[in-house]
Write a structure and sequence with these properties.
Beta-lactamase; six-stranded antiparallel β-sheet; 11 helices; alpha+beta; two-stranded antiparallel ribbon
């Protein structure tokens, strides 16, 4: 009889716990445009993914041997003429620095393609637009009128921060994030303008990942990002990148459509390397680097190792 009572009591306790669990409110879901998890969080980065095991058979070894300076690296590598599947190493949402400008560019081009604006429209530079950091536009006289096309070109080729903020003002931050979310770049978000240190101190940072950047570069390569004509314009801007310290220095003579980014503790490079039948899409993002010069040297060595 005592044993039956114990069983009965245990059954009642289990049932009560199940009811309590069922009645507890579920954790709210996070919208797709909410801030992604930054690199400093406790969430671990995704492990290496090799879509084509034969093509990328030795890639883990190359990563371990070359990117070995203590910097936190993430890598996207694809050979679109050989395989539709990329190699991805430790992709996670990371501070994007100026890499976010690629998504800003594409968002404007989509609006142009839809007839919502013209990239040849004029925009007047105001003194309030001018910010420091990278670029040359802050040195122009206030009142200068430039086309949106020229402002976007400076945003990419010179990584011009003043130009970038003018582009953000033209279509709005919410429109840019809408473009990002609709196109499935789930690790990417724009939360502040360039050189907005108040936003940074308030915890609002811009994020992306090698997966999202690799994806948009692949779409540009395939002319499936916005349209053939607008993708060509974007590729032309990217080929005019003036920061040549990393991939171009490692691969002299190659045509490279790419974007770089730098902040304290990180340096990124990513884009399309045209290579006579072995075109390569390579994106390397970093965080907590061992030093900019050392990190760039390791990135250059990796680029040479994976581009035949």
């Amino acid at each position: 009889m005592m044993m039956q009572k114990k069983v009965l009591v245990s059954s009642l306790m289990v049932a009560a716990l199940m009811v309590a669990s069922a009645c507890s409110p579920a954790a709210p879901k996070t919208a797709s445009v909410e801030r992604p998890v930054p690199v400093a969080s406790s969430v671990k980065a995704a492990p290496a993914e090799a879509g084509d095991p034969y093509l990328f058979a030795d890639m883990d070894a190359k990563v371990s041997e070359i990117l070995d300076d203590g910097t936190e690296y993430a890598v996207y590598l694809a050979y679109p003429q050989k395989s539709s599947s990329p190699y991805i190493y430790h992709s996670q949402s990371m501070r994007s620095a100026s890499m976010i400008k690629v998504f800003i560019l594409a968002a404007v081009m989509e609006k142009a393609n839809n007839g919502e604006l013209s990239i040849d429209e004029g925009i007047v530079l105001k003194s309030s637009d001018k910010v420091g950091g990278a670029g040359i536009l802050a040195g122009y006289a206030s009142g200068t009128e430039l086309s949106l096309r020229e402002i976007m070109r400076l945003m990419i080729t010179e990584s011009d921060n003043t130009a970038t903020n003018m582009v953000i003002d033209r279509i709005g931050m919410s429109a840019i994030n809408d473009y990002i979310a609709r196109n499935g770049y789930s690790d990417t978000i724009l939360q502040r303008k360039m050189m907005d240190f108040d936003a940074v101190n308030a915890g609002r940072e811009n994020y992306s990942s090698v997966r999202d950047l690799g994806t948009i570069f692949l779409e540009l390569y395939q002319h499936s990002c916005v349209s053939w004509d607008y993708d060509e314009i974007m590729l032309d801007f990217l080929k005019g990148q003036t920061d040549t310290d990393c991939f171009p220095a490692a691969l002299p003579g190659k045509v490279i459509a790419h974007k770089t980014g730098a902040l304290v503790g990180l340096y990124d490079d990513g884009g399309i390397i045209y290579n006579e039948g072995n075109d390569t899409i390579l994106v390397i993002m970093t965080e907590n680097y061992s030093g900019e010069y050392t990190t760039i040297e390791h990135m250059k060595a990796f680029a040479r190792a994976v581009v035949d």
